[in-house]
Amino acid sequence: MPYNIRGVKFMAIKRFEEIPHTADWSFRAFGEDLRALFENAAHALFALQGARAREHAPEIARVVAVSAIDYEALLVNWLTELLWLQESQRETYARFHIEALSPTGLRAQVFGAPLAHLDKIIKAVTYHNLEIKQTAEGWQATIVVDV
Q1: How many Å from the N-terminal Cα to the C-terminal Cα in the chain?
Q2: Which of 55, 68, 63, 58 is nearest to 82 (CA)?
Q3: Could you read off the pLDDT of 79-98 as tens digits, one per residue?
Q4: Cα–Cα distance measured from residue 57 to residue 13, given in angstroms and rounded to the nearest whole number
């Protein structure tokens, strides 16, 4: 939906939407560019789990670097690394800053806090129906996760 700030027209792009799936969870992430797409896919991952941080906990910053053979594999590796960090460190993440992104590599800072609660656990990010495509509004990715 377009909106105006000082006479300049902008398009508001939603971060993600859940897509019905018979056995697992599926979502579509959006972004005006590939960096925003990868950041919004990470937001979707934690939001769909109902991940909540401990109240009044200090913010934690971590550096994440992953590599792959293409953008699709890179997206899976990025989200898988975030799930591994969540599980191994018992943390949840709410802010993501992609510092470098190419078809074969990603480097980012992620910010979060100790994990207080998860409504549902995502076990894995899959390649099933995985798609990244450019649209007239920007970029979108369809992702299926195993729960």
Answers
A1: 32
A2: 63
A3: 999 999 999 999 999 999 99
A4: 30
In CATH terms, is domain 2-146 a member of 3.55.10.10? yes
58: left (phi over 0), alpha (psi -120 to 50) or beta: beta
The pTM (predicted TM-score) of the whole model is 0.86
d(CA 45, CA 84): 12
Return the structure tokens found at 91.
């943390």
At which residue do the structure tokens 């989200």 appear?
79
For 75, list phi and psi in degrees, rounded to 5: -65, -45
Token look-up 């200090």 returns: 58
Cβ neighbours around 31 below 10 Å, total: 21
List the chain domain ranges: 2-146
- 3-state secondary structure at position 19: strand
pLDDT digit string, tens, across residues 27-62: 999 999 999 999 999 999 999 999 999 999 999 999
Question: In whole angstroms, how far apart are CA 16 and each of 63, 77, 100?
Answer: 23, 19, 22
